[in-house]
Amino acid sequence: MALTPEDVVNKRFQSTKFREGYDQDEVDDFLDEVVVELRRLTKENEELRGQVGEGVAPAAEAAPVAAVVAEPVVVEPVAAPVAAVAAAPIDETAGTTNLLQLARRLHEEHVKEGAEKRDALIAEGHATAARVIAEAETQQRVQLQKLDQERSTLEGKIDELRTFEREYRLKLKSYIEGQLHDLDATSVDAGNAPKPSFQGFGA
User: Fold this and answer.
1) What is the DSSP letter of 18?
2) Given CB 3.0 to 4.6 Å as the disulfide criterion, which of 22, 28, 129, 132 pairs with 13?
3) Under a CB-based contact definition with an 8 Å cutoff, are residues 82 and 56 in contact?
4) Is the pTM of this model over 0.85?
5) Distance between CA 88 and CA 91 in Å, rounded?
6) How high is the pLDDT of residue 68?
7) CB contact at 8 A, 34 and 3
C-alpha cells in the first residue's frame, strides 16, 4: 500500500491502558511502514536515474554526422530534457525528506502529548492524595474531640461518685459513733440505777 503524506498526518495511535503514552509496538509498526515506503521511493528514483542515463546514450549514438559537427547546437536541446528529468529525483528526494521530517514531528508531538497527560495524571494523583490526607486528618481531629469530651464527662462522673462515697462514709461513721455513744450511755445508766430490795410478803 502506497503511503501518502495524508496517511502520516491522519494517523492516530491507540492509547495504552496500563502506562502513559501510546502503544510502542503500534508506533514502531507505523514507522516501519514509513521506512518501507521511503526505500521504495529511493529505489524508484534510482531506476529513473538509470533510465535517464540509458536514454541519453542511444540518442548520442544515433545522431548524424552533421549533428556531430554542430555539437554545441545538438547537445543543448538534449541537455534540457536531461536536466528536467534529473531534477525530478531531487524533488522526490525532497518530498521523501519532508515525509520523514513530518513523521518525526508527529512522533515528537505524540510523545509530548503523552508526557503532558502523564504530568496531568501525576498532578491529579498528588491533589487527590492531599485531599484524602486532609479529610483523614479532619476526621481524626473530630474523633479526638469526641473522645476528649467523653473522657471529661467520665471524669466528672467519677468525681461525683468519689464525693458521694466520701460523704456517705462520713455520714455512716457519724451514725455508727452516735449509736455506740447511745449504747454506752444506756449501759452506764443501767449500772447506776438502785437495786430493788426484797421485803417479803408482810410489807
Assistant:
1) S
2) 22
3) yes
4) no
5) 5
6) 38
7) yes
Q: From CA 51, how far away is CA 65, in angstroms rounded?
A: 25
Length of the chain: 203
pLDDT digits (tens, 9 = 90+) for 107-156: 888 888 888 999 999 999 999 999 999 999 999 999 999 999 999 999 99
Cell numbers at 153, concatenated: 464527662
Identify the band that residue 71 occupies on the pLDDT scale cut at 50, 70 and 90. Answer: very low
DSSP state of 16: P
Q: pLDDT tens across 76-111, in order?
A: 444 444 344 344 444 557 667 788 888 888 888 888
**Does an H or E element contain 122, and which?**
helix 71-192
Query: 119: which 3 cell numbers?
Result: 504530568
Provide the phi-psi class of 200: left if phi over 0, else alpha when psi is between -120 and 50, else beta.
left
Contacts of 185 (CB under 8 A, 6+ apart): none
Helix axes 71-192, 24-61, angle to 10 degrees: 180
